[in-house]
Amino acid sequence: MKQQGATLIQLSLALAIATGLALLGVTAYGQLREDLQLSIAARDLAQALRHARNYAVLHDESMLLEALEGDWGKGWQTLRVGDGQLLQERRLSRPLRIFSNGGKQVRFSALGIPLKPGEAFYAATLHLCRGARSEHQVMIASSGRIRLDTGAVSTPLCAAGPLQQ
User: Strands of 124-130's sheet, edge to edge?
Assistant: First the structure.
């Protein structure tokens, strides 16, 4: 007599293989989602800096981009320095680890030059971190040029974690 259908062992093996593949897919999806979130946040941060600089130059007034609640990883807002009017706010849907070697705010003069509070020229890098590595870097040159770099680099800011921002 010829057997029809599958045995319990064959069904169990097929189920185990399907479960293993699904688990791999979920892990890969989680990493892809985190990669996309970091990439989008880096692009949005660079764009917000460019917008603040362009607004300062076009309207001949100082602009300020500052971290929300003192943490770049929560988001940022763009303000006019003269009257403190909020022009734009970007709150991240999920907090990220973003560290800057230049502080919690970037101020652009009416000429589009980034300045420190004491009117000195300002240059900084904002690192979007995963673990101890910076996956994306938003760089602000002392001339005001904003550049977005991708690629993992080691930085003490990311390695220090949330204690040092």
Answer: 97-100, 124-130, 133-140, 146-154
In a domain, 3, yes or no: no
> Do 72 and 100 touch, CB atoms closer than 8 A?
yes
Would residue 2 count as lying in a domain? no
Is residue 139 included in any domain, yes or no?
yes
Structure tokens at 21: 């593949």
pTM attached to this predicted model: 0.78
Pairing outcome for strands 146-154 and 133-140: antiparallel
- Cα-based distances in Å from 119 to 62, 63, 84, 106: 12, 13, 18, 12
CA dihedral 126, 36, 77, 97 (to 10 degrees): -50
- Count, residues in the chain: 165
Domain range for 109:
8-163
- Of these ranges, 13-17, 34-38, 55-59, the one predicted with the greatest mean pLDDT is 55-59
pLDDT at 1: 60
Split into its structural domains, the chain has a count of 1
Q: Cβ distance 65 to 100 under 8 Å?
A: no
Query: Does a structural domain hold residue 144?
Result: yes
- Yes or no: say if 146 and 54 are a contact pair by the CB < 8 Å rule: no
- Tokens 């001339």 appear where? 143
Rounded distance between C-alpha atoms, residue 101 and residue 122, angstroms: 11
